[in-house]
Predict the structure of Peptidoglycan DD-metalloendopeptidase family protein.
Amino acid sequence: MPDARGAPGAAAAPDASGAPGAVAAPDASGVVGATGAVPVVGGAWPVGARPWVVRGWEPPATGYGAGHRGVDLAAPPGSPVRAAAAGRVSFAGRVAGRGVVSVELSRTGDPPLRTTYEPVRATVTEGDRVATGEPLGTLEPAARFHCPTACLHWGLLRRHTYLDPLTLLPPHLLGGTPPRLLPVTA
């Protein structure tokens, strides 16, 4: 069953191996990101104000097993794709015929976290610094085999370990209730 961030059995921290496709187990608290491995540094959805999550994070049982190493967010082709968090563009180009933008996130440890966005027609180039919410490009039309509707595939990695990108966002952006201060009574 998905957790509050739409992540069924989501991984909070990279495993010790750092092997390609490695996926860590949830921490003892059961809270995604509670270990501090994924700091809440995001401040914007990559597309829309609160897009429909077409397909959520589904970590594979093994490093090379079946799963979904990111989330798919519904958006029409031509939609602006924005940086979920501030960082430096580490790649902007085509991979397997699709436009891909990758951003190495600022202040996220060593090695730093890296977000990926596809399919995107990039308006940024490698080395560009981007602020949270800054446009990276526009969503390209993609083959329907990946999503039943047009979507952005948004990924998150630390080195070779895939993580749930929704863990970057604060609860109020995910539909949770923001904290409220109660009056002090005597």
